[in-house]
Every structure is written in structure tokens, then in C-alpha cells.
Design a protein that fits this description.
- The chain is an alpha+beta fold.
- The protein has one domain.
- Helices cover about 30% and strands about 30% of the residues.
Length: about 70
Amino acid sequence: MVCFKEPEVEQTWKGETKIELVKHHMCYFPEKIAYVHYDCHKKIHDIPLHTFIQYQEGDARKFYDMKKDKENDS
């Protein structure tokens, strides 16, 4: 299950450091993104949790190919 918690804070010798969240695409068309902890992201894909995976096979490749083409046109 995804935890819905705030970013975690890690204590280091320099002070506090926030643990970054991972950008997870719930859907590519239209684009829907959830920011989740790395461990939560692994659970989403390893189980898989279809509530958080609302795209079809091949959508990720199509999305990133289109993004790359758009960047090359700029």
C-alpha cells in the first residue's frame, strides 16, 4: 500500500536532509503524476497496484518518444 506520508527527513552529520520523492506516472494520456517514496514506488510496480497504474502497455515508451521528439524540435 502507498503510505501518503510527507517526505521523510533523514538526520545527517550536517543536519537534516529531506529524502526525495520519486515521480510516478499514474497515467500518461492524460498525464497524471504522483510523487511517492522510493519504497512505495517499488510496491506500486512489484505487486502491481493497478489503482496507481492506469496506463496501457506501451504508453510509457510512446510518452517518452513524443517528449524526446518535442525536445529535438526545440
